[in-house]
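Dear Dr. V.,

Thank you for agreeing to look over these. As mentioned in my earlier message, I'm a first-year student in the group and I'm still getting used to reading structure tokens, so any feedback on how I've presented them would be very welcome. I ran two proteins. I've put each sequence directly above its structure. The first is here:
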Amino acid sequence: MPSDHRVIGRRNNSAWARFKLVQEGYLMSDSARGVWEITKVGRALVLQAKEGLS
């Protein structure tokens, strides 16, 4: 277990970000540990954002 509070903070932030993305329907909730699998809704959001950059 890391003793550096910055590492622990980043892990905590990542966990909350993943939780929020799952709740919004952008990531699969049943992905393997460490895998962030995007849903069809998530793909559509990425494509929409990508079009906005062009």
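The second protein is here, in the same arrangement:
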Amino acid sequence: MRIRNSPTTRAVVAVSALVVCAALGADAAPSLGRRQAKSCDTIYQTFAAGTALTAQDYSDWATWACSTWFPSGIGSAAPNPPPAAPATSCDSIYALFTSLGATALTAQDRQDWLDWTCVNWFPSGIGAAPAPHPAGRTCDSIFAAAKTATPSAQDLADWASWTCTTWFPSGLPTITTPSPPAAPTRTCTSIHAAVAELGQVASAQDLLDWVDWKCDTWYPGGLGTATAPPSTPPTAPPPAPSPSPAATRTCDTIYASYQSGSKLSDQDLSDWSAWKCSTWFGALTSGQGAVTPVKPPASTPPSSPPASIPNYNGGKLQFSGSKQTVGRIQVPSNKVLLGAYLDMSTYGDTPQKYASRIGKTALMFGDFFPFPLDWAWYSSAQFWKDQLGQGATFVMTLEPMNGLYSVTDDAINALVSELWGLNGAGIGVIIRFAHEMNGGWYIWGRKPSLYKDTFQRIARAVHTVPNCAMLWAPNNGLNYPWSGGAYDPAQYSQDFNDLDTNKNGQLDQWDDPYSPYYPGDEYVDWVGMSVYWYPPWPNTCKWSAGGPAPNAIERILRGQQVVTGEYQVPDFITTYSTNKGKPFMFAETAMHYLWGGGNPPSELDMKRAWWSQLYGRDLLTKFNIKGIMYFEINKNIPIYNNQWTPYALTYDDGIRWNFLNEIPMDLFF
């Protein structure tokens, strides 16, 4: 999971993290997200620099609703754009290749792949081309020629075999428009009936339409499990909300106002209806923002304000007491760092506001930045220096969004320069480089040799700066190898062979998810991982009575299934923390809570079941755990139909009061 926070954009850009279905023992799954080679930021920078944008840029700009952050837009369409209908793009070509193989690609697919420079997003390519078609002949060229001349028999044959109507649905201009397909009323219902109920093999178009039309809204079991169709099936996919005239107004912000108890204005209610926000959040039943079902109350808020904040000097969070060096970082002696990623977008949160809420100086905060560093860091560097102070620790998650080869010596030198600046302000820095590298959902993933080499290069430079350290943080290995990622290595490639640790010719649950990526003791100062608890995924079951299983977190750290306790993967915390003497950090962690009808456990009960383990004295004193980075963010989760979920522990008064009064605060700083 990642989040972009900066004082200028205040934008939250997230990708999901590991799904830990603890209470029911359901399979854990890696983050689901498409390739992450670019972002709204990088597309806009390319446009602002005057460089021509590709078809994929424009497709991503629309899909990611980038106008929310850049309302001025990115100008007119690029050369060689994909036609308006259907929305063919690098994504769809690559999806066709991965699902049906290289032979399923047409000449037009391959021509578009070149025209749109798709290798920028999918550097592994789309395999070897089949027997070549006549030189220069594509759907484009046949369509262009048909404007002035009658198509030949070969034209018509190629037009049909290459399924050119995918790009030109109106047909060739000099011949009769092709007849509509046998089932012109294609819907989620018809696809589900053919595939899940009748057992037909899903075509590439079936799979693309299923995703594009958000069919999981009606058939949460997916195409692999038949479910009863709704009594009145939809005849069209639910439309996405139109962009708001004001860049910061969305369904999310209206719903956040509801959550805070604010009365919704007439404009709020009008926009809620016009943008069909109930598709994501359910129906509003009153102008007060009440939603059916109603969120259960968390608890009674405290009657007195939080305690005063120690060492709250001059607005900065500082510490001048006894310190010890832990993994090259100066921290308060014999304490666990109480850290957080903050919701600076929805709530305008800051480290100082967080400290005020908990009545205690928190000394560790984090944020996510593209690497090589760009304006996202340079525009926020002074903000962090102003907010933090002597004795604070900053966790910088660096994401090489253009791949590991983009990490040049110049980029590393620029990073070191920034670290000296933070160091001079008394702020320690922990670099979390290319996290979750053992999964195939990030562009830097599944490349063990190149990853280790790049990590080592950065570590050698970072270690020249005092009070700066390197954090190695893979995804936790439950249910490895999480096949199907966009960046999984080709079978029998060098990366594949490196990951096949048991040398049986395949990547399976018996391979080690950690050791191929370990850079070496001299380069790693801290070790950690992401640990989240989610309801059973990807179905729509909204609760699991009792929340996470007892000892679920310890079992995850030790490579055990959370319910049975059966060892599945190597014991991470013993191997890499205890045996190597490395401090451990929960690099990201939170409890995912959804509410709905019936009589579910309360948000307080669910979160209490999580924090009693995560912040519990038994766990923290049993292992060398020195930091907890909590995901103090409330956001929408795509795999749950974009339903809002409150991860945070301190925004709700009742949740916060119980949390602060139940954890062993004497262990933390």
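From my reading of the second output: The chain is about 30% helix and 10% strand. The radius of gyration is 26 Å. Does that match how you would interpret it?

Kind regards,
E.
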